[in-house]
Amino acid sequence: MRQYANIVGWGAAVPRRVVTNSELEKMVDTSDEWIRSRTGISERRIAGPGETTSSLALQAGKQALAVAGLPASDLDIIIVATMTPDYPMPSAAAIVQHGLGASRAGAFDLNAACSGFVYALAVGSQLIVSGMSVNVLVIGADTISNVIDWTDRNTCVLFGDGAGAVLLQATDQPGGLLSCVLGTDGAGVDALIIPAGGSRNPASVETVTNRQHYVKMNGNEVYRFAVNAISRSMAQAIERAGLSSDEIDLFIPHQANIRIIQSAAKALNFPHEKVFTNVERYGNTSSASIPIALCEAIEQGRVRAGDNLAFVGFGAGLTWAASVVRWTVDPAAAARVNGRIAAEGVIA
Ligand code: UT7
Description:
- With about 350 residues, the protein is of the alpha/beta class.
- Helices cover about 35% and strands about 25% of the residues.
- Strands 1-7-6-4-5 form a 5-stranded mixed beta sheet, sandwiched between helices. A 4-stranded mixed beta sheet has the order 8-13-12-11.
- A hairpin with a 3-residue loop joins strand 12 and strand 13 (about 320-325).
- Oxa(dethia)-CoA binds near residues 38, 39 and 217.
């Protein structure tokens, strides 16, 4: 029996439009200096006309299939982790399934906010390990720019749009997800919330007038929660994988704030060179941040066959999710097989 779910393909997509901190200075009472020093962010990508959660997810998913050389018709399941689907119903995953021509695949969305990619990785891996599926496409995609209040300086400077994907495949070669820790503290629901547009406060003229369809956040509360939750859950995941911190080759955390990443890295004893960050160029892309970072790490030659990778996410819920993944493929060889991706780079 094939008992492992290895990552055999990957891809990422971000909108073309770059929004710099100085552009935000013209929109709200903020400064490049404040944003850089408090968050580490210099610029982010913001979706333009025709760029949606599913269109970015589709691009990322196509690349993941191309890297693996797998036809879409061989996909069994597509999971899109998102909290900003194109529509409340149907799922973004259904749109991706059609766009890929993945005629045999079941498709669904999963919402664990910014922790969504690691949650989806756990679900996808288990579908394979249980014997139910052979090829599972896991995508993290969000266009938070659509639910951000562009007059609220507390939130609008933090986020960006994007998508990242991995293709999981059943194999008898040991590797893939070694451990996973998933958690939620629903007492923190109000700390990060879009209050209207769901069943509690359905959309109405009043909810729109009161700007309740936008993200509301208690930044300090989320910050304190994040530092604690990610270091604790990541340590547990490393232990459950039977490893120690120094056996982790690359730490790829959710890219929300450089200070949160640095605090967690310090608590986990990861030296600077083992920590991957790109929050500076993309901001917080929610469930897309870890797979986008993974793709950039691969492009930079920082991921090799046999490496142990540590992923950790946190977000609204409040949720957290940590996992350790053993990487099994040679990324350079995969890129050579598909020259187009090697030439263009994963992120156009
Ligand atoms: O995926 C999960 C998503 N959420 C997060 O990751 C958020 C986690 N939290 C954070 O990253 C940080 O708490 C923030 C970046 C949001 C805020 O940084 P901070 O160092 O915790 O600042 P603060 O909230 O203590 O605010 C300090 C000051 C306040 O002014 P007063 O009350 O001291 O006069 C804010 O009003 O900074 C002000 N402020 C700003 N100033 C300029 C808040 N946002 C801005 C801004 N520009 N954009």
